[in-house]
């Protein structure tokens, strides 16, 4: 699609989906509250947001930000887990468009000690391969490395690489995003959290953060604690209130230079963000990279992010994480409406919904941002959810028609049932 065509699409009238669209759906709150208060498998709390075009047509919060102390509210921030990776992909696209760091350039010059597959040193490791989980990198015990020396050692360790030639196998890797963050820092000569603010968050008018210890107590107070239930008791796992309860990734780093070790910020999952702030990112996605009349990401580049870099096929040795991954774009998941023997990526029990986005899971949190971009005559849509505490392990919380947890299946079904009809539903 040409840039001229893009601007024509932006100028087309978009149906006005009124905010009152939910007035006739009083069951939405009831259905979601029933998920949170399920007597057999309760949740600590749940926040959801549904957008059509630039409008939030539904947003609600249920349960606790801190157990029996503070209720979830509109501006509660969550450590959003792997949804953080989607923000990194968008910034990487902007750096590519600005000529700062090419998606297909060899990243070895930007990484302390270099970057190459021990068994395939002739294949350049690029940002695109890192975003697509196709480098062959495996996760070390912890994606966050304590020092530059530790980062070098982790990259050089043959045990942290699959045998496959880069570009030939999909294998999800959190550590890949710490490596990419390091290259982004070096290319921009800017600390990772600051470059994310500069290239994405400030243009969108939001101020999420990665290091809870680097913000004021007032900024930290809306941060949700993440919980798991152990022996029927809620036990905090991350982001407890107060300066001593939160991880402080920079406190021991001294004067670390950009490009020394980007893993310290947790780029793979450490973004603390509220759902209204995440909604701004979602709006950029549904508007195909366009924001307030400007292309933050040029349309041909944005469209390329949506194209399949990998799709599961029979006999494929890909790591599908229990069937939830069936197809990948560039830095984001493609939900293909597949129901498989393992479960699959189906978004609704009745099928019929395809989309793009990213999911997150860590420390008892489950999260998702799922979207469809606008098309001629149709606005885009996005749904977001974050739940900050689960009462069952995921192994015992399997869904019925997919590889999602049973909580997520119910949440997704409610939100998709709530969307107006005749919105985009396919990957075409």
UniProtKB/TrEMBL annotation:
Signal peptide annotation: 1-23
Organism domain of life: Bacteria
Record keywords: Hydrolase, Signal
SUPFAM superfamilies: beta-lactamase/transpeptidase-like
Pfam families given in the database record: Beta-lactamase
GO molecular function annotations of the record: hydrolase activity
Gene3D superfamilies tied to this protein: DD-peptidase/beta-lactamase superfamily (3.40.710.10)
Keyword Signal on entry: yes
Descriptive protein name: Serine hydrolase
Source organism of this protein record: Inhella gelatinilytica
Organism lineage: Bacteria, Pseudomonadati, Pseudomonadota, Betaproteobacteria, Burkholderiales
